[in-house]
Specification:
heterodimer; A: four-stranded antiparallel sheet; 11 strands; 50% strand; B: mainly beta; six-stranded mixed sheet; 0% helix
Chain lengths: 113, 110
Amino acid sequence: EAQVTQNPRYLITVTGKKLTVTCSQNMNHEYMSWYRQDPGLGLRQIYYSMNVEVTDKGDVPEGYKVSRKEKRNFPLILESPSPNQTSLYFCASSPASGYNEQFFGPGTRLTVL
Amino acid sequence: ELKVEQNPLFLSMQEGKNYTIYCNYSTTSDRLYWYRQDPGKSLESLFVLLSNGAVKQEGRLMASLDTKARLSTLHITAAVHDLSATYFCAVDMVAGDMRFGAGTRLTVKP
């Protein structure tokens, strides 16, 4: 089944404890992206990647890191999480950027205490 | 800075009625997307609009794009309860750099 998977789906952590949220797609998509969703703000893009080893900042990159070492994986790293990073995170992928719909993962609900 | 504004943010409709959701954006782009999100779920794609004047229809939903006015509309015809969801428009600023609207929460009542 073609899909985007994220792990974990739910995470409660404490301020300053490094964490990684994984994202993987099995559709051989070139483009991948991370978003956070907060009430009343819609989705805001954190980072995106046009292809392997190519990443760019989105609208709200501060406090996050990403890497794209393989086409299928695009992990999101929070090196020192803070409470304002409590949010619902979505990973998405598409065949190529700009002309294709994105396929979204199921979401990761993160709480930083 | 690109802004994407949706109106209304909340919409309560009766079944059988028609209504339009508006998506305005503040910079030049000819790539606009509509997504649907059910409560507690992820987003799914509804429409991809890639040129001025593009119109797409699926069931009771029809989306259009006017790049000169920087406006997209999502028209709902004869609403049914199953259309209750949150609808997002998204604009592709530069290839890959996406901006979403705040979403329109639609409730269709019997």
